[in-house]
Q: What sequence folds into this?
């Protein structure tokens, strides 16, 4: 009977403790709600704006993601060619050197051809290399040096090739790093040598692709100009001067005399070399004529008929 009376008392105490805790927590929450001051209208608006800010930021980010991606600038290799007729090729070459120095370019080739009989015009071909953004201004300055006969510009887009080279280079660099890790973990000498060979091949390919990539980037950054110069042909220079004609005739005659003398000397040498055969041939001809005279009937009858008469 004593044990049965103790159990209800302990359960009643436990239930009363739970009810007291619930009442205490409810009273504390009600006190906090009543003691909290009401927000003024401006503060309420600020809180509303702060609540709306995350939503606005999300919408802005969504708009930014939905905006179209701007296309990258095309990677063009530009080459130009221009032909000019000028009064003086030498003076024009000097002017071109000044222009190319002003435009921060380089003169990479020069070929001049002096006037000849078949081509009386003085011509020159110049290869220029300059930054891509200075191509148009340089062509305009070159066109002022003479009369433009022809002018053209060609462009080749190598953007896809550059992207391909960069992607291949990135993949090969990752492969190189993985092979290096494998080589560090390799145990046997055979495995180390095999991985080292593959690593060498990958590095060689990386160097080749890197060189091609830099070459394309250099061609994109710098344009080339081929400048053809030709001197104008004047009517006064078409006929040579009298002194030049006399000098040219004298040179031709002396050259002809020397050629004739050399030809005679060569003929004499040939005759000396073949003189034994010539002597034998002359002896044979002479002997044949003597034999013909002595054995011919007509020649023998002629003296007898002369004596009979």
A:
């Amino acid at each position: 009977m004593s044990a049965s009376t103790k159990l209800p008392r302990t359960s009643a105490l436990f239930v009363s403790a739970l009810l007291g805790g619930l009442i205490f927590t409810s009273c504390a929450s009600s006190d906090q709600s009543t003691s909290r001051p009401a927000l003024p209208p401006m503060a309420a608006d600020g809180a509303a704006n702060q609540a709306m800010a995350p939503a606005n930021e999300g919408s802005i980010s969504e708009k930014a993601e939905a905006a179209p991606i701007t296309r990258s600038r095309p990677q063009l290799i530009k080459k130009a060619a221009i032909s000019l007729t000028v009064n003086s090729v030498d003076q024009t070459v000097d002017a071109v050197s000044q222009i190319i120095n002003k435009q921060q370019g380089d003169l990479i080739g020069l070929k001049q051809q002096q006037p000849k009989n078949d081509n009386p015009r003085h011509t020159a071909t110049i290869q220029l290399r300059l930054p891509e953004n200075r191509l148009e201004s340089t062509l305009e300055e070159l066109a002022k040096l003479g009369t433009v006969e022809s002018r053209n510009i060609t462009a080749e887009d190598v953007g896809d090739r550059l992207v391909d080279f960069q992607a291949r280079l990135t993949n090969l660099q990752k492969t190189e790093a993985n092979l290096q890790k494998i080589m560090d973990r390799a145990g046997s000498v055979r495995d180390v040598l095999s991985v080292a060979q593959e690593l060498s091949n990958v590095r060689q390919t990386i160097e080749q692709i890197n060189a091609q990539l830099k070459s394309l980037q250099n061609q994109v950054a710098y344009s080339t100009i081929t400048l053809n110069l030709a001197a104008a042909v004047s009517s006064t220079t078409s006929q040579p001067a009298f002194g030049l004609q006399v000098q040219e005739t004298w040179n031709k005659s002396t050259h002809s005399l020397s050629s004739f003398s050399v030809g005679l000397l060569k003929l004499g040498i040939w005759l000396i070399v073949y003189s034994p055969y010539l002597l034998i041939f002359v002896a044979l001809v002479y002997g044949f004529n003597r034999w013909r005279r002595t054995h011919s009937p007509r020649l023998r009858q002629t003296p007898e008929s002369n004596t009979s008469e």
